[in-house]
Design goal:
Helix content is 18%, strand content 32%. It has 164 residues and is an alpha+beta fold. The protein has helices at residues 19-29, 88-92, 99-104, 137-143, and strands at residues 13-16, 40-43, 48-52, 57-62, 65-68, 79-83, 97-98, 117-122, 126-133, 147-154. Strands 1-2-3-4-5 form a five-stranded antiparallel sheet, covered by helices on one side. It has a five-stranded mixed sheet with strand order 6-8-9-10-7. The chain is built from four helices and ten strands. GO terms for molecular function: RNA binding. Pfam families: PUA.
Length: 164
Amino acid sequence: MKGLFDKIGTKTCCSTMSKSDKKKYNVAMGNVLDMKTEYKMVQITGKLKLIRDSEKFLFFEYYNRIYPTIQNFDKSLFKTVVLDEGAVGPLSRGADVMAPGVIKYQNQSVHFKKDDVVGIEILNQGIFAIGLCLIDFEEMLLKKEGPVIEVYHIKNDMLDQNLI
């Protein structure tokens, strides 16, 4: 999938995040938002929202699923899949993560389930992208080919650079 944040038009709405929205995020993510801090919710489309504090974007919500930004990724909250440096080019051009790349470093990746939100780490470089698992880890090992993770957000896209 081409990244969500490659070419974003103008935002449709920006408002202060309500206490009930903060509670929703805290229940879903494990108390990640301070209830006393003011956060902004930026509505991009009917399916895409961004959450930011005064400095940077923290999360995005796409089809009612919450994802961290690369800058706000926490390995204690989300699983991580490791790929080698050869994945940077294809990911930067909009490719999804394919099974052979994950299988190569399966011992360094956390086993994931279908619909898990994961960070995609480039070996010795850190988190490079955020995506959604399309299949279970075990199914990937059996199939050994095809797309495994749909990528929504990559390093240096408009969201990562705070250009939205």
